[in-house]
Amino acid sequence: MNQERLSFLALHLTPGIGDYLVKQLISYCGSAEVVFKTPKGKLLKIPGIGPATAEALKASSSFQLAEQELTKAEQEDTEILFYTDKKYPHRLKEIEDAPSVLYYKGTLDLNTEKSVAIVGTRQATEYGKEVVSKIVEDLKPHQAVIVSGLAYGIDIQAHKQALKSELPTLAVMGSGMDVIYPSAHKDTAKKIIHNGALLTENCFGTKPDAHNFPARNRIIAGLCDALIVVEAAEKGGALITAEIANTYNKDVFAVPGSLGETYSEGCNKLIRNNKATIYTSIHDLEYLMNWSVGDSSPKKKKVKHDFSSFTEDEQKILSILYDKKAPVMIDELTVRSGVSPSLLASLLLSLEFGNVVKSLPGKQFTLVMK
Questions:
Q1: Are 17 and 123 within one domain?
Q2: Is residue 57 a part of any domain in this protein?
Q3: Residue 345: domain span
Q4: Cα 83 vs. chain centroid, distance in angstroms?
Q5: What is the pLDDT of residue 300?
Q6: Which residue has the higher pLDDT, 329 or 110?
């Protein structure tokens, strides 16, 4: 058993340590394995680590749980993806609250060129279902991955239509990989595995408790290039997903509905408040995303600057600053680059002297060379 992967999962399962602290600890210590070997006194010097968390790390009781999870994953034909893995979705890496661990089952490449999330009410009308079918069918020439949450209503319609249209589809779950919810969708889930994937951040055995779904929604929002809301009440999960997608700078669309209809209120509200672009046909999405049929490159795919003259660690820093197109906090640079804080500070100083990066108030940095 790979000790680093076991340690990473054990770290993830340690009480009191969330996704951000997992990345923070690995960034400071260099690897998950080293985290558990680091003396308590040094752990306490890491931002965000208090006495209770340090004590929990020293107890190391999470290793037994990690071994059980890895054994279960093998039995369930499930792959556990870590934040540092190449197969981990690059779209999720761009968001600060990305899961440090994902459970994956299926055949889908999680880093495909185009990805569209479709969400909406669980009480979908026939009109809503027809709209979803039309949207998915129109996306077929783009070979976009259809992302949704396997729920009743709009979600399951999106998955079923994707399967019918022979488009890959990704179902993000609010439960453990071995707990398909709702159970009525087990047959569809099996089909998705063969032409897409099931994805969750939850451990095996996790029940579909209510608090898991807002967290699930952030993954849906993070995995897409564009999110389309089809039928939504004034309050509900679909609107939460849309709000999250807006904070991630994703393009959000909403299908307008009839005035006075309950499941039109949410979409109309998003459009009225400029939280979503109106969706009337595939041309609206193609225009805003700058997608053309036969073009496999989405609008937001950036052309990388040539940083080959810099060291490997410097390239990591410069690529993050280049991709962000905005000032980046030093803590975010630490987490995303995987470079230790002391080395990062030294590299940033050197790059600043070379007039490559610029230091800003609040421990932020930006790229000088464009």
A1: no
A2: yes
A3: 312-367
A4: 10
A5: 45
A6: 110
Residues in CB range of 156: below 8 A, 6 or more apart: 148, 150, 185, 188
Claim to verify: residue 358 and residue 224 sit in the same structural domain: no
132: tokens are: 């979803």
- Grouping H, G, I as helix, E, B as strand and the rest as coil, residue 89 is coil
**In this structure, are 318 and 184 located in the same domain?**
no
Q: Strand pairing of 196-200 and 328-329?
A: unpaired
Q: Would you list the DSSP string of 57-107?
A: HHH-THHHHHHHHHHHHHHTT-EEEETTSTTS-HHHHTSTT--SEEEEEES
* 28-43 pLDDT, tens digit each: 888 899 999 999 899 8
CATH of the domain at 337: 1.10.10.10
pTM assigned to the model: 0.79
Amino acid at 105: K
Is residue 177 very low, low, confident or very high in pLDDT (cuts 50, 70, 90)?
Answer: very high
What is the token pair recorded at 114? 């185009």
The better pLDDT of the pair 323, 177 is held by: 177
Q: First CA to last CA across the chain, in angstroms?
A: 44
What are the residues whose beta carbons fall under 8 Å from the beta carbon of 327, sequence distance 6 or more? 360, 364, 365, 366
